[in-house]
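Need residues for this backbone.
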């Protein structure tokens, strides 16, 4: 697990536009920068739920994707793109 993953998760969940925040984090736009998180009971509960569900599923890295039944652990962008292209193209 990336050492800053918990802070990045909190950063995403603290934003009004979580989709945009997720995109920023995934593209490395906040890496090496100071960024604000929040202290919020709703965010704390969401993190608790996500951690619990992740542990039940055996998730051991972030990000963690399941694309068409295949696991991609970590930010392996080339593998993610390959699997998505294969899924869109359909069976050969």
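Answer:
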């Amino acid at each position: 697990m990336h050492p800053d993953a918990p802070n990045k998760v909190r950063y995403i969940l603290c934003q009004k536009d979580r989709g945009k925040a997720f995109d920023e984090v995934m593209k490395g736009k906040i890496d090496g920068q100071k960024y604000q998180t929040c202290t919020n009971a709703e965010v704390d509960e969401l993190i608790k739920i996500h951690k619990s569900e992740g542990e039940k599923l055996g998730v051991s890295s972030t990000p963690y994707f399941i694309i068409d039944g295949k696991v991609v652990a970590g930010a392996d962008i080339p593998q993610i793109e390959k699997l998505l292209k294969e899924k869109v193209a359909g069976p050969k």
